[in-house]
Amino acid sequence: MRLMASSLLVAQNLYIVKKKPGWSAQFIIECFNKYGKFSVIDYEFSGEEHKDY
Q1: Residue 20 has what pLDDT?
Q2: Secondary structure of 1-44 in the HEC alphabet?
Q3: Distance CA 1, CA 27 (A)
Q4: pLDDT attached to residue 28
Q5: What pLDDT digit, counting tens, does each position of 31-46 carry?
Q6: Rounded Cα–Cα distance for residues 2 and 14 (Å)
Q7: How far apart are CA 31 and CA 15, in angstroms?
Q8: CA 25: distance to chain centroid?
C-alpha cells in the first residue's frame, strides 16, 4: 500500500534470490517517477548510432 501499486503488479515484479526479496529495475524506476518526490529519471545517450564498441 505504501508503494501505491496493486498487489498483482508488486507480485509480478518481486523476485527472490538466496532467500532475499528483490525488485526489477523497471518497477523501481516506475515507482520513483510516479511518486513525485523525486525528479523524473531521464536517459542520455551518447556516441554514434548503430555502432558497437
Answers
A1: 94
A2: CCCCCCHHHHHHHEEEECCEEEECHHHHHHHHHHHCCCCCCCCC
A3: 15
A4: 83
A5: 877 777 777 777 788 8
A6: 15
A7: 16
A8: 3
Whether pLDDT at 22 is above 70: yes
Rg (CA), the chain: 15
- Long-range contact pairs involving 2-7 (C-beta distance under 8 Å, separation at least 24): 3/31, 4/34, 4/35, 5/31
The predicted pLDDT at position 1 comes to: 67
Whether the Cβ atoms of residue 41 and residue 33 lie closer than 8 Å to each other? yes
The residue to which cell 531521464 is assigned: 42
Cα separation, 30 vs 24, in Å, equals 10
- Map out the domains of the chain as residue ranges: 1-43
Taking the whole predicted model, whether its pTM rises above 0.90 is answered as no
Residue written as grid cell 523525486: 38
Single-letter amino acid code for the residue at 27: F
